[in-house]
Amino acid sequence: MSRGKFIALEGGEGTGKSTQCRLLAEALAKRGIATDITREPGGTPGAEAIRTMLLDPPGEGWGAQAEALLFAAARSDHVITRIEPSLEAGRWVICDRFVDSSRAYQGGAGGLGDETITALHQIGSRGLRPDCTVLIDVPAEVTAARLAERDAGNSDAIGGRGTEYHAAVRQTFLELAERDPGGFVVIDGDAGPDAVHDRIMAALEPLLAAA
Ligand code: TYD
Q1: DSSP secondary structure string, 59-79?
Q2: Atom of ligand 1 nearest to the CA of 97
Q3: Distance (Å, whole) CA 50 – CA 31
Q4: 71 CB less than 6 Å from ligand 1?
Q5: Interhelix angle for 163-179 vs 140-151, to 10°?
Q6: Which of 36, 75, 105, 207 has its CB surrounded by the most CB atoms within 10 Å?
Q7: How far apart are the C-alpha atoms of 106 and 69, rounded to whole Å?
Q8: Is 47 a pocket residue for ligand 1 (Cβ < 6 Å)?
Q9: What average pLDDT score do residues 180-209 get?
């Protein structure tokens, strides 16, 4: 049994990651590949409990450090009890967000820096990296319009942060991808779901061919 591949979908708010995760899982299933589709923060009962604390925080909310630690704790449980066992069992794991979200949101926009997030990831999740991180990039004006429709003023504690914060998230994602062209593919997400899916499948062809 060969180890499964690990694909993370990343991007800012309203970039269509969840839809693309579903379409990707369906496409892989059609090719006879067993998949485990999951998300962060979440994916296990413990990590889902932490998700609630993060997105609907008690009191004044979390400071930057506590927030980063909670994401890392949720991820640790997810990696050790679900992602690693699935990969070991030969399943392909498709994850809606992973550590690069922490690098972009907490490390970049939140100001903690990449070294801090990478160190937390090393401690919590043995530094696990996806085989491929698919970054779906959408211009800020397009996401603003999509979010106005999706959230209608009910965004969560992180999604509801200002436009400057989200611009820094996007910028950091693009910088991370530029620094690691072998680990990332950047997909233009400013199109309909089927067109974006086709772009993702084309970009993943080398990984699929090796399967
Ligand atoms: P979610 O509803 O999954 O957002 P979206 O539909 O936009 O993907 O909520 C996850 C939120 O948590 C989102 O605002 C991004 C944020 N987040 C971080 O700040 N750091 C992280 O490490 C992760 C995984 C998510």
Answers
A1: TT---HHHHHHHHHHHHHHHI
A2: 24
A3: 34
A4: yes
A5: 130
A6: 75
A7: 10
A8: no
A9: 96
Q: Is there an atom of ligand 1 within 6 Å of 158 CB?
A: yes
CA count, 13 A, side-chain hemisphere, 186: 16
Domain ranges of the chain: 6-210
Residue 59: what pLDDT?
92
Strands, E assignment, the chain = 6-10, 35-39, 92-96, 132-137, 184-188
| Residue nearest atom 7 in ligand 1 by C-alpha distance | 13
Q: What's the pTM?
A: 0.96
| Residue 137 near residue 189, CB atoms below 8 Å | yes
Q: Which tens digit of pLDDT belongs to each residue from 39-64?
A: 999 999 999 999 999 999 999 999 99
6-210, CATH topology level:
Rossmann fold (3.40.50)
Please tell me the distance between residue 142's alpha carbon and the centre of ligand 1 in angstroms: 18
